[in-house]
Amino acid sequence: MSGRATQPGTGITKGTKPMRIVILGAFAALYFLLMASTFNSLGQVLPMIVADLDFTWAQAGMGFTVLGIACGAASMLPAAVIRRHGVAVTLLIGMVQLIAGFAALAWMQGVWMYLLATLLLGLGFCFCGSIAAVDAIGNAFDRKRSTAIGLYFTAGNLGAVAGPITFFAIHSATGSWRLYWLACAAGALVLGLFAAAVCGRYERRVGVVHGPADEAPPPPEGWTARAALASWQFWIVVLAYTACLLINTTVHSFAYQHMLEHRVAPGVATGFISAAAFVAAVAAALAGFAGQRVDARALTVVALVGSAFSSLALILPLGTAALGFFAVTFGIGIGVSTVGTALLLRGWFGGRAALELYSVMTVVSTSAAIGPSIGGHLHDTMGSFVPNFAGQALIGLAVALVVGLARRPVPRAVAGDAALA
């Protein structure tokens, strides 16, 4: 088929428009499940787990930390598998990890099984999530890349809406939080196989680049990995992504429990958290469309400020106004951050080493996973999540100022670039 330009080292390449749309849909459906069933609903289930299994909140927060560390620390692995074996194999590996993690959560009886389960889920999220998707979608879509990436993250945020509501419905109907994890395992099997099959079919049609780099076609334009890593602007993008992830993960860990402790009814708390996820879905879509015309740096600043304000909202007396303000700002922070940082990274450094740079950014952002452990420890010792929310709000605003003052990097030659290109 004419017009297929194979990108080096990735199984997803430019092809026909219908196939690109199917690829986007497959990744979007899988990301919907990932966002629904991991970070966004685990916080809803934790109060039941703590009560039934006699966990401390420090132990409960540690599970979130392990989940976040696994997502970040393993981020170079899917990049390597994609370069060598393609996207379909990467998705199958992630699917197996997800199923094992959900099964472990469903049958766990103690802390160690809980930590193992969250480790497996983090690895599965890493292999099936945004690393493969952003690279694949970025290579498949050239003219509407920003819109496509925005729609992908929109699907994930819609999953974040569905996850807490689905758990609330299953728990209300059955009284069991374990059945929810079994349902998630079934979803991982179905959607993982679907996404892998779609990607595998597409890879067979257009070809997957294997072998040494000197056998690959000429790389696309952009910075080499070595040159980008030597640029301080790259680390500004990493800092912004990490700050957003810190607030996102910590708030997801404890917002529900914090609301319950301040006399917010469980159904109302679930409703506002799901409303925040709905706002995030809308914000991600709008950010994707806006990314065609608006500077990605401005989008990233908006995400940081929104995230910081959402933490401040939780410190206020939790009436309807404060909860509504939380839902709007947290949704904007989540929805715009993923799109803004992905576009900023690719816009500043191009597509030549985008897969490696996105993976490095994800690895470094693992440091944000310490947030839930700190928050859980503070709650155990001080009896409140407020100090943690206040501290991370200040971090978000400080990083927003740094990003706002940053400027686009200017390419420069670096000796030995070819080694990391």
TrEMBL record:
Domain Major facilitator superfamily (MFS) profile residue range list: 21-408
Record's keyword terms, sorted: Membrane, Transmembrane, Transmembrane helix
Residues passing through the membrane, by range: 21-42, 62-82, 89-108, 114-137, 149-173, 179-199, 234-256, 268-291, 298-316, 322-345, 357-379, 385-406
Stored Pfam families: MFS_1
Protein name: MFS family permease
Species this chain originates from: Novosphingobium capsulatum
